[in-house]
C-alpha cells in the first residue's frame, strides 16, 4: 500500500497477508482523487474515513493536507496497523477510532468537508449509508461524500448523487 501524493508521497506500508480488508487499489485511489480535486480542496479540510480497513484513505487524506481525519475501523488488528502507520509518519492529523461505524454515525455531532466510506461490498446496510450521512447532516455546506461499492449498486437516483466512476471492479458514487 502506498501514498499517492502529498507530503508523504511514495511512502509504502506492507499490509499483513492475514488481513481480510482489501485496500482500494492504487489505480482506483489515484483516479478517484484526481476526480475529487475538481470538487474539494483537501488542504486544511476535515475528513471522515468510514470502514478504514488498512487506513489507505486516511493516510492519503493526511498526506494531502487534511487538518483532521477521523478513521473508523472495527477490526482490532486493522486498527492497530493504522495506528502503527500513523506513528511511522509521526502525525497527529488523524484520529483512528476502533468501533462500529453505525454506532459512531448515530452519535456523531460533527460535520466534515469530506466523507469516504468503503464498506464490505456484501454489507446488508450498504445501501442505507448515503441516507444516514445526509439525514444526520454530517457534511458541511459544499461537502463531498464518496461511497465505494460493487457494481450491483446504483445510487444514481439518490437526491444527493452527482457522479459515478468505475475503475475495474471498484465503483465510486459521489454525493454532494
Automatic annotation (TrEMBL):
BP term (GO), one: methylation
Pfam families linked: Cons_hypoth95
Record flagged with keyword Methyltransferase: yes
Any one GO molecular-function label of the UniProt entry: methyltransferase activity
Keywords, in A-Z order: Methyltransferase, Transferase
InterPro entries (UniProt xref): DNA_methylase_N6_adenine_CS, RNA_MeTrfase_RsmD, SAM-dependent_MTases_sf
Name of the protein this chain belongs to: Methyltransferase domain-containing protein
Amino acid at each position: 500500500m502506498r501514498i499517492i501524493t502529498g507530503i508523504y508521497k511514495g511512502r509504502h506500508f506492507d499490509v499483513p497477508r492475514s488481513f481480510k480488508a482489501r485496500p482500494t487499489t492504487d489505480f482506483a485511489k489515484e483516479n478517484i482523487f484526481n476526480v475529487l480535486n475538481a470538487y474539494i480542496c483537501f488542504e486544511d479540510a476535515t475528513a471522515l474515513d468510514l470502514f478504514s480497513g488498512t487506513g489507505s484513505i486516511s493516510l492519503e487524506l493526511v498526506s494531502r493536507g487534511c487538518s483532521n481525519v477521523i478513521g473508523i475501523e472495527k477490526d482490532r488488528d486493522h486498527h492497530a496497523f493504522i495506528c502503527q502507520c500513523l506513528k511511522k509518519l509521526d502525525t497527529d492529523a488523524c484520529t483512528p477510532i476502533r468501533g462500529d461505524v453505525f454506532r459512531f454515525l448515530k452519535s456523531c455531532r460533527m460535520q466534515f468537508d469530506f466523507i469516504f466510506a468503503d464498506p464490505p461490498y456484501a454489507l446488508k446496510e450498504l445501501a442505507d449509508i448515503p441516507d444516514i450521512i445526509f439525514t444526520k447532516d454530517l457534511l458541511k455546506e459544499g461537502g463531498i461524500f464518496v461511497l465505494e461499492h460493487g457494481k450491483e449498486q446504483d445510487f444514481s437516483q439518490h437526491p444527493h448523487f452527482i457522479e459515478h466512476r468505475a475503475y475495474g471492479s471498484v465503483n465510486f458514487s459521489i454525493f454532494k
